[in-house]
Structures are given as structure tokens and as C-alpha cells.
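Worked problem 6 (solution included).
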Amino acid sequence: MAYRLSEDGRHSVLVLEFGGTDRGPLIQMPAALSIPMNMARYDWGYRSEPEPHLGGRSLACPRGKVIGGSSSINGMVYVRGHAMDFEHWAEAGANGWAYADVLPYFRRMETWHDGGHGGDPAWRGTDGPLHVTRGPRTNPLFKAFVEAGAEAGYERTDDYNGEKQEGFGPMDATIWKGRRWSTANAYLRPALARPNVELVRGLVQRVVFEGSRAVGVEILRGGTVTRVTARREVILAASSINSPKLLMLSGIGPAAHLAALGIDVRADRPGVGSNLQDHLEIYVQQAASQPITLYKHWNPISKGAIGLQWLLTGKGLGASNQFESAAFVRSRAGVPYPDVQFHFLPFAVRYDGKFTADGHGYQVHVGPMRAESRGTVRLASAAPEDAPTIRFNYLSTEVDRADFRRTIRIAREIFAQPAFAPFRGREIQPGEGVDSDEALDAVIRAHAESAYHPCGTCRMGRADDPGAVVDPACRVIGVEGLRVADSSIFPRIPNGNLNAPSIMVGEKASDHILGRPPLPRDNRAPWINPRWETSDR
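Solution. The predicted structure is:
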């Protein structure tokens, strides 16, 4: 938004950021992705409350505390979402956010490099700030994964971000010339080169109002609270955790909750902090019978060599996030579009890098895309420095639990195909013999992890919808001069990782803020499996 709002030189933009610089190899080197998301310097360090359906475990909820936000600490996977996701947004009251409305913004933000893998460029952008690339897929396991999907009867796709999401194929990433291509690199630095954009570091405490109109914010800098005023509007883009937190600290949220904390209620909006959604996933892991996985590099000497090669040339294993093949499938007949996502990795390791299998292995990260469960973000106190209370309420319905078991069984089916025969060893997780619903449920409770895709806590809808927080122009309902534009406004979680649709929201919200007409609708129809009513393949 800083980039787009300042583009014509008519408006001044002040960007407030609590975190510091993203300079340095730990963020910029794609292969180091597990490191910054576990560092207090770059991550807010949020955790969920004990989750009752996950054995009382508290799960990590990383959020970027750094220039570029979560795009500076994420896995760099680039997924727009399925066209039907945005049709649901429009049906839920987000008028003007159907697929035909948002597709032009996805194209505007992208410069797509297909890497010779195919796909129809008519669906993709060619001159946007965000470079989207594909890894080399030189490890034979990447090809085996795609071949195994075809052997199991699933579709192939050359470009899941184009006409056809459903199927097995190459994965897109926000990596350019061997570096993480975050929103800081793509948008913020070019914006800061303009005289009408300024970056100020500080902790935003609350929004300041005169009557019902937002006129600025209070920020904490160097131990002093300072008021910053806005000539036009205040825009929150602080994540699905911190945006509802700031609204509630400013008196906008569930009235009873705010009153109990001694916060004066400015607008009773019960939807603030509600509708919290996330993707829960598990790692289905297989031992490898050949020493071809990334495990051979999991030692200080190899890591040092990879890092040195990247520092000197920007190339090598350090230049990839290692997520180079992916799949989107439907879990059963009667599901009209994919509801399961696979990230394939030629290594058996936890996403945060804290656990590796003993020896060579490979894995898929897998889980349902559209769970029924909903959670909340609430204030722990009226103090801005206190972390909020986060409850995802994962797997709170039997439908969600059954869907999760089904995704594990599909992953096992893929790994059992002939394409993996030259590489297949024993199953590491869930483990051989773990077959019954009860046994799988126990593994899920013990080992399922967040995919780090929280959203929906300031959902967009009609102004007369009591559960909506912002209207389709991203204006906070019940006050003036205040907008929210980040993943918190999603009515429902999209298919896949959230970086791409979050950036799209910033692109489209900018036109609303500037009062510009939206980009012309693009009514091209996406591919829908003609057998969806009778077959899961």
C-alpha cells in the first residue's frame, strides 16, 4: 500500500513498523527460512492457548516483526488461492471481491518467470513488482512426487496459479536472483526512495479519535508515547493477530470483552478477533533408501559451504526454499474444487528445523484447506505491550477430524506408487501399523502443526452484517477514517499459503483508498474437474 498510495506523488505516506531491518543472510537466503521465524528479533513469538483437541498443546504462531512483515520470515511459497475461494468471499458479502475482480490485481502485482515448466502466461502478470519464480527441481524426488500423483490417478497441472489449480506440478516461490523477494524488497524499498514516503519505527499503542473519526495513532518510541496525526486516513495492516488487537485497544470490538478490561467502547463490533482460521498440517514422512535427500547437508560443514556459495554467487542450494513440487487435490467425490494441499520436501524435518529424522527421508506437509473450526483473538489486558490471547480451536468438529485423517491416507497412497519404489524405505510418521481412525487421531493430536496461515479476524462483509468488521472498501464499520487491509479481512481462508492473497488485498485496497475505479473485471473461467460429483480423481 505504501508503494501504490505514493505512486502518483500526490499523497504522503507514513509507514509505522515496530520491527527492524531485514538486511542479512538469515532472512535473504531462501534456504535459511526456518531460522528467522524462530528468532525473537524477527518474530513476535506468539503462541496459541492450549488446544483442547490437540492434547492441550500450545502451537507456535509466528508473525513477522521486521520490515516486510511475515513475508520476510515465511516459506516464500506463492499460492493465489482457487477461483472459488473468492466467489465465496463475494457470496459472504465482500461485494467486488469475486475472482473476476481480484484476478486483475494478482496480475498487476506479479512478474512471473515460468522457468520453462509450461503454463499459460495469459493468466499471469508480466511487469509487477513481485517476482515469482520456480526452483530447478534437480533432485529426482521432486519428479517422483509428480509422477506418483499421476500414477494414483490425480491430475497434473503446469501452473496451479493459472487456469488449473487442481493437480500435481511445480511450485511457485517469491524468490528472485537467489534472494527472498519479500514485500520489503518488492514494494517498500522502491516506495521509500520517493520523497513522499517515510518509515518510522515504534510500537503502535492505539488509534486516536476525534469523535467518531480516526485522526492518528499513539506510538511508543524510546520510552515515550508520541501522537502521530493523519491528514486523511489511518490504515492497519498489522496481521490477523495484531490488527484485531489494535482495534480492541482502540475501543472497537466485542463490547463486553472491552468493558471487562476497562476500555471505553467506541464501536461494538463482535466480529473483531472472531472467525480466526488457519491451516493445520502434519508431516507424512518416509525414509529414503538412497542418500539423495537434503539430510546429507544437515551438518555444520555442509551448511557453511552452502551459505558461502550463496554469499559469493547467490546460487546453489541456499538459493531455494526447497519447496519445488506441490499438489492440490480433492479429498472425495462431491467436493467441487481442491480441499487438500501438499508441499513436498526432499528431507524429513520439521518446518521450524527443530527436529530431523535420523537418516535420509522425504515428506509431504498435508492438511485440509477449508476446516469448519473457528477460533478467536482476544486481549489479555489493556496494556499494548502484552501479547493477545490466541485460541484456534483446531479440530473442534468431527468433520475436521475425518478430513484430516483422509489427507494422511491420500499422502500414503501417493508415497506407495511405483514412482517412489526406487527411493522408498520405511514410513517414519505416522508410522507403519498406524492405520485405525483412533491411532491416526492420536498421531494428529501429538504431531499436527500450524501451517502459519492465520486469517479472518476482521472479516469483510456488508455494513449491516453484525459479524463483519470492514466493508468491501476495507473501511472499519462504525467509525470513520480507519481501514484494515491484511489477511485479517478474509471472510474465509483461501486454498494455499496466504502471502499472495494478502499482497493482493494491499493492491486492491489501495485503489479503494485512493477512490480510483477498480481494475476491469476478468471473467475468464478457471478449470473445474468435470468428474467432481462422481470421482475424487
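Discussion: The chain has a mean pLDDT of 96.
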